[in-house]
Specification:
This protein is an alpha+beta fold and 322 residues long. The protein contains 8 helices and 20 strands.
Length: 322
């Protein structure tokens, strides 16, 4: 396939998503890779295809004693740098191709084998400094091209459509849009209608959203959006992450951070309950966005213009100019 935005940095996982001593498969720009992490926190990544008869290494297992990955077909073992293990020791030159990783704390980045054109952004460490990692949620493949998927993150007219169910957003006036190169910020207000009792039971985290609240979105093109809102229950930024799996398939996941209001922590079990509710509500957002993008007919020139579509035009121009 023609690679999407070669040279862009891609956040492919948080350490907790990879787990310990188990294969974790990803697809990036049409190539499959297998990642694994040792109990000591070392991370490795190889092409997912065994160089013997092309069995997927992600279907195999990790040998903890040798920190190697084992092919499920013939039990061939490979070290993290791609060398075949003979009698338990790496020998010869690498024959399984490694994927270079860039580790930023618990964040796993890669350039997918291309020369870097942008630095690894520090947006997530800056916006989550001092906050607890609450979990990853909403991971799924979206059956749509990467540009369509990133444009919805810059579309400020879809909240009262795609997200009306459950979140009941009536309008969201924008107060500021600033962009400098690949970095942008939007300040806005969300104005909501009342939720039904059933909606609250289904997603108790909705209780954290007042009828009117301020929100900020910080962007780093092409893959990151950090959403923050001023709510009474705590400080709970969410990081929306996208990367291209193929020309027609995009991966999304969300990293949730935060601290709950100290008053909540005095109630037994409320912290865990609200965290689970937040992760569930966030997953609903990604599912609603995914279904919207997947349902679109092939792109045509729009015959209607809505307010603030210049923000979508900004990100599309970045993509076209790459």
């Amino acid at each position: 396939m023609t690679p999407v935005l070669p040279g862009a940095p891609w956040l492919i996982a948080h350490r907790t998503m990879v787990g310990i001593n188990r294969p974790y498969e990803i697809t990036l720009n049409g190539r499959d890779y297998v990642l694994w992490q040792t109990a000591e926190g070392q991370l490795f990544a190889l092409d997912n295809s065994c160089p013997h008869m092309q069995a997927p290494l992600s279907n195999g297992w990790v040998c903890q004693e040798r920190q190697s990955i084992t092919c499920p077909f013939h039990a061939l073992e490979f070290s993290g740098d791609g060398r075949l293990l003979t009698e338990g020791k790496p020998s010869g030159q690498p024959i399984a191709k490694p994927l270079d990783l860039v580790i930023q704390g618990d964040l796993i980045w890669t350039y997918g084998g291309f020369s870097p054109r942008l630095p690894i952004p520090d947006l997530i460490p800056r916006k989550t400094n001092g906050l607890k990692f609450l979990g990853a949620t909403g991971a799924r493949s979206i059956q749509a091209d990467f540009l369509s998927c990133i444009k919805i993150n810059y579309d400020f007219n879809h909240q009262n459509g795609s997200h009306r169910e459950t979140f009941r957003v009536r309008e969201n006036p924008i107060h500021r849009f600033e962009a400098q190169g690949h970095i942008a910020r939007v300040d806005l207000t969300f104005i909501r209608e009342d939720n039904t009792f059933k909606e609250i039971l289904d997603n108790p985290a909705i209780l954290s959203l007042p009828k009117r609240y301020q929100g900020q979105l910080d962007y780093v093109f092409p893959s990151l959006v950090v959403f923050r809102a001023e709510v009474d229950l705590g400080h709970l930024p969410q990081v929306f992450v996208l990367y291209p799996e193929t020309e027609s398939r995009t991966r999304i996941f969300v990293l949730c951070y935060g601290t709950w209001n100290p008053l909540l922590l005095k109630l037994p079990g409320v912290n865990q309950f609200m965290t689970r509710s937040l992760l569930k509500a966030t997953a609903v957002v990604t599912e609603q966005d995914a279904k919207t993008v997947e349902s679109l007919y092939p792109s045509q020139p729009p015959q209607i213009r809505l307010p603030h579509e210049d923000i979508m035009a900004y990100v599309e121009q970045l993509y076209r100019d790459w």
